[in-house]
Amino acid sequence: MSDNRESWSARSGFIIAAIGSAVGLGNIWRFPYVAYENGGGAFLVPYLIAIFAAGLPLLYLDYAVGHKFRKAPPTAYKKLMNSEALGWWQVMVTLVIGIYYASVLSWAGSYMFYSIGQQWGTDTQGFFFSTYLQNGEGLALGFVPTLFFGLAIVWAVVMFILYGGVRRGVELANKIFMPLLVVLFTILVIQALRLPGATAGLNAFFTPNWEAMANYKVWLAAFGHIFFSLSVGFGIMLTYASYLKKKTNLTGSGLVVALANSSFEILAGIGVFAALGFMAYSSGSSVQDVVSGGIGLAFIAFPKIISSMGTGGDLFGFLFFASLTVAGITSMVSILQVPIAAFQDKLGWSRKKAVTLIAGSSAVISTLIFSTHSAITFVDIIDYFANNIGIVGGGLLSIILVSWFRRPLMQQLQEHVNQYSSLKLGKGWNFLLTVVTPLSLSIALGLTIKSIIVEGYGDYATQILWIVGGSTVGLFILGAIVFSCLKDSNTGEEN
Fold this sequence. Notes:
Elements: H1 11-22, H2 25-37, H3 41-69, H4 73-81, H5 85-114, H6 124-132, H7 145-193, H8 198-206, H9 216-230, H10 236-241, H11 250-283, H12 298-307, H13 313-347, H14 351-369, H15 375-403, H16 407-418, H17 427-455, H18 461-487
Helix pairs in contact: 1-7, 1-11, 1-13, 2-9, 2-11, 3-9, 3-11, 3-16, 3-17, 4-5, 5-7, 5-13, 5-14, 5-15, 7-11, 7-13, 7-14, 8-11, 9-15, 9-17, 11-12, 13-14, 15-17
């Protein structure tokens, strides 16, 4: 059966696609505001530690499981430890992330057109929250047409790519647009560094606040972001590795992906914080005071940089946000590829059927939730819980189940990776996965859950109840659809 499985055209195709998954909104949209909200420079130290203590070890674990068994998470973990539960948890997390990720992606797409004439004006923050999002107070479920149409277009494009398959869809899209994004973004950062006040912003980004590092939430944010950014712990890299040919240098590929991802994130941080320094200089305030609502940072700081170019910024702004949108789409495609591959493996669905049912259902839920006046509130809540609990929890479980309770399997996976890899996994990898990573994640995750129980999450108690209730109903409906399809599923369909 594995002979019929789709595959990348070459290892380079996998690397480009993996970088495309890692480099996207997670770097340009999420990393700067996570760093901003966690002390700027103070965030960089735990971030770098998290890469080597958790990111790379878990990335190699994902690669090993996916490549050895050539299946999506549920079936791969079934073959590994005779249980699909962890795999389905990761599938659920990717579905949740895909649903809200589409919303932020649609914002980037809309800003392509707002760049023409620089329609955000001088008050980029007011334009984003009040004019574009039409952000309401509390739980405001009123309909916002511009958000709806943006989401509809995003889902149509993503489904079109997914229908094309691994080579003609995912790989081709990354090969075309990733180089363009890198070139345009580098030019944008250079422009940001030339702005007056940029130095103050860079100081805020690179100067460590050692007191802030004593806060466990900063460390949890660092580990949670690494999982989100590297696409580990929730099935993406496991699924991507399952499409690799048998003789593949896994560790070499992982190093390239991790290096490209982190380099781009640091570059994004430099660009955003340079812009924050410029905004602080222009308003006569400090860097810490120039922006509220960190989740919209990329849509406030970047337009400021583009506006600094004068009328020449129109074309550049359009091209930049177009590239950012496409980079985000390739990441979203990788997210949705997990549940699609999972149902293909489990039920023998064709790609067309899996894309239609899984992506189609997600599109409906996404447009209903994120076409409202509370769109950014929902994104904030879901992003927090999906990353700090869903991804971290799934990654922690995968580590513990393999490294603590399936020690012989660790040896098998290590030997599988080392068979064709340039960098051999050894005692260091075992020690990190067995002691350092699970211990640090367990402490951070436990403290976060305690904080949520005792303090709640901001003023979002009502919204959380609505989301949990709505998600539960949605899962029941989706489960009923899947169950009915399971009855008449033709397991002989080609993948």
